[in-house]
Each structure stands twice: as structure tokens, then as C-alpha cells.
Amino acid sequence: MKSQHISIVGTGYVGLCTAIGFASKGYKIITSTHNVERATSINRGVPPFYEPDLQETLLNVVRNGYLKCVLTREEAVLNTDVTFITVATPSQPDGTIDLRHIKSSAIEIGKALNKKDTYHLVVVKSTVVPGTTENMVKLLLEKHSNKHCGSDFGLCMNPEFLREGSALHDTLHPDRIIIGEHDKKSGDALDALYKEFYGEETLPTIRTNLPTAELIKYANNAFLATKISFINIIANICEKILGADITTVAESIGLDQRINPRFLRAGLGYGGSCFPKDVKALIAFSNQLGYIPTILQAVQEVNENQAKHAVEKAKEKLAELNGKRIAILGLSFKPNTDDMREAQSVPIINQLLNEGANVTAYDPVAIPNAKSIFKNKIIYASSPVECLTDADCCIIVTEWDEFKKLMAEDFTQNMRHPILIDGRRIYNPEEYSQKLEFVTIGLGQ
Ligand code: UGA
Q1: CA 427 / ligand 1 centre spacing (Å)
Q2: Which end of the chain has less neighbouring CB within 10 Å, N or C?
Q3: d(Cα 130, Cα 442) in Å, to the nearest integer?
């Protein structure tokens, strides 16, 4: 029997994966969303998005009574001891984050706390700019509960570092835990919960104040995005030096323990719901403070240009794109997810369409999401080979395992003109450039 009952407000990647992670270890979890369709689907054990292992684990915990989804924050709060806020904090047109969902969650949780007479811990897990937990969440909770933060209820900021595509694994095996605490009692309560949850596995835990915890999340994502843009500029330099190869450069610098090999894969740049949004938000936040974070501006610019890079390569090979048939392999922002938010496939396909190309695309799971973006402007193939058939050029946009298994012959035998642009460095250039017109990222050819 676990010591705490937990509620989770928000059922996106972070909310649902955190909920399922806790439930899979025997905690009673109540998730809450205002979306009736989403709640029904979760209560039937069907996740609203694709993520490896999520389907079976969700079904299991729902069937065993460890997880349910309700439609009001009040029901979730009144029946639990701890509430995690995991709602979305999307970008606004000026790059700043939209705190609308944080605000409404804090108000509803505050109102529910007003009806409770036991201590309750509120934990902000959503990515929020420094100051939000203290200046917005705390104030709204106190106002609507008529209670005092620190004595009647606790408040922590606990950033999340899970990656899509390995969300459940990351939830169960994080590198460390960051606890931003309003006061010691709140921090002790969250620390005790995590010690029980992770058991013997002693994880490095940093306890700090609320704004530092908030900034750690942005610094983490901005640093990883910087690594990617950095390796992409070195890849672009490689392309100008005959014989220089980014994969060997990345492997070699990665062996320096001060650098490490991860997040040094050159390609068409980063996408997803986190890096683009968080880099933008950190720039906007710094600007508001009167500071221009020049490195971050460059990181963003390099990333935007990296998508265009694929189209330029296609143009160089085909002379012009108008009327040409381009096969796009991979639509999601990375493998093992159907998420297309800020996917590099979107600017690539839009630019191809603007230049008059006919686009056929294939992705193992993201086609339903792609249809809501591109509608009938592109053709959707049901297999890689169907996608390649009669194409004048193919661009690998996402490095799905399924594409790594394709042979050079799959391209030569099915395409009208076998021109392959490997945007993710998944094929052996020596072999492929002998068999077809092969262009890749970060290789001086
Ligand atoms: C990222 C962070 O890695 C998580 O720690 C964080 O919790 C999450 O954002 C978040 O803030 O919620 P995620 O966006 O799911 O996770 O995916 P990543 O694996 O980080 O990949 C992001 C993008 O970078 C992808 O488009 C990927 O293709 C690209 N990437 C990654 C590269 O281009 N090269 C690399 O070497 C690594």
C-alpha cells in the first residue's frame, strides 16, 4: 500500500506518462482533463497518442483499478494527497509562453483546496518561466483556497525531462530529480514521495528554490538544442571540405568526457513540442529582462536554416522542383512518435509545395496527424516502396528503423530518378553513393 494518493491535472505526454508510471508501481492515480473524449478513451485504456509500450501499460493499470480519468479538478484534488500540474504551456505568437492553462488549473485546484481540511501538496511539472510558480500559482491557490501556502498546503516546482518516444522508460529511470520548494515541508513531502517511488535506486536529487528549478528546465532544453545546432553547423562546414565527415567528427569529440556523445547527431535539425518552444520562450523571457541571449538566437536560426538545407540539396540535384515528384520518408519530429508539432517535415514539405513539387509522404504512424496539416495537398503512401514509386528524388526526414532497413535497390528499382537525400545520416555513404545519386548531411562529397 503506497503512502500517497496522487492526482495529475493534464493528460498530455508528461501528465499521462507520469500517471501511468506511478500507477504501474502501485499508486492510485486520478488524472483529470476537461476533454470528455480524451477521458473516455483513457478510461477504456486507450492512450490518445502513440508512444511505445503505453497502450499495454495503460490498459493494465486501468483494468487493475490503479488509474482513472475524471472531468473535474475538484474530484481529483479532493480524493488525493498530492496534485501534479502538467498542463500545456504553448508559445504565443511573440514567443512568450501562454500560461492560460496554468492559471485556470491553479484557480480550480485552489477552489478544491478550500473544501479540504488536510494538508495537500501541489507540484508544478509543466515548463513555466521563472517566477510563475511563486507569483502566479501560489497567489491563485491562496486566493481561491483561503489558505496559507507552506502551512495549509505545500508547493513545489518539479521539472520533467522525459523524451517522447521513450517517455515511460524515462519516467521510470530519470537521470536526476529536481525539487524546487516553496518551503522545507513541501520539499520534504515531495522528496519522500520520490524516495518511495524509486525505492532502492538512489537518484541524485537537487533541492532548490522555485525560480531556480523553473530555469533548470529551460537551461536543460536550451543546452541540448545548442548541442544539435552546434553539430549541424560543423556538419555544414564538413560539406565544404572534400572528404570531411561529420559522423567521425561527432564520434571523436563525443569521446571527450567533457562533451559526451549524446545529442551530437547532425541532421535536419530539431523539432517537437519542446526545444523550439522552450528556446523561443527563454529568448523572449531574457529580452523582457533586458538581456539578449545571442547564442540562443543563433541556435534557433541555424535550426530553421537546417530544414531549408534539405530542399536546397534537392534543388541542386534536380535543377528545378516544379513538377517533380518528391518522396518524403518520415513525418514525425523524431522516430517512435506520431507527434508532428514543429516537425522539420512541415517546413520542408511546405517549401517543396511552394516551389511546385508533387509530394508523396510515408510515415509508420504519423499520417493521421499529417492529414490534418497538409489535407489533400500531398499524397499519403501506405509503405516506403509505394512512396518511392516513380519519384524523382527522396528525402529521409525522420530516422525510423523501418527506413534503415531499406536497401539501395529499393530506391534504384522503384524511383524514376534514384536521387536520395539522407537527411539523418542513416545509410552508408560509401555503398549508397556507388549505387545511386546519394547526398547526405555533413559529408564533403
Ligand atoms: C526533449 C528533451 O530531450 C527532454 O529531456 C524534455 O523533457 C522534453 O524535450 C520536454 O521538454 O518535454 P523530446 O522533444 O521529446 O525531448 O525529444 P528529443 O529526443 O530531445 O529530440 C528533440 C529533437 O531533437 C528531435 O527532432 C530530434 O530529431 C532532434 N535531435 C536529437 C537531433 O537532431 N540530434 C540529436 O543528436 C538528438
Answers
A1: 22
A2: N
A3: 37
- Active site residues per annotation: 274
Q: Which of 30, 336, 2, 38 is nearest to 193 (CA)?
A: 2
Other beta carbons less than 10 A from residue 70's beta carbon: 17
Grid coordinates representing 302 are 541555424
List, for residues 318-375, the tens digit of each pLDDT value: 999 999 999 999 999 999 999 999 999 999 999 999 999 999 999 999 999 999 999 9
C-alpha to C-alpha distance for 87 and 127, rounded to whole angstroms: 9
Evaluate if residue 202 carries a pLDDT over 80.
no
Q: Which three cell numbers stand for residue 348?
A: 520542408
Helix 210-238, helix 275-288: angle, nearest 10? 120
pTM: 0.96
* Gap between the Cα atoms of 162 and 19, Å rounded: 13
CA pseudo-torsion sign 131, 175, 189, 24:
positive
> Is the CB of residue 341 below 6 angstroms from any atom belonging to ligand 1?
no
- Asked whether 195 lines ligand 1 (CB < 6 A), one says no
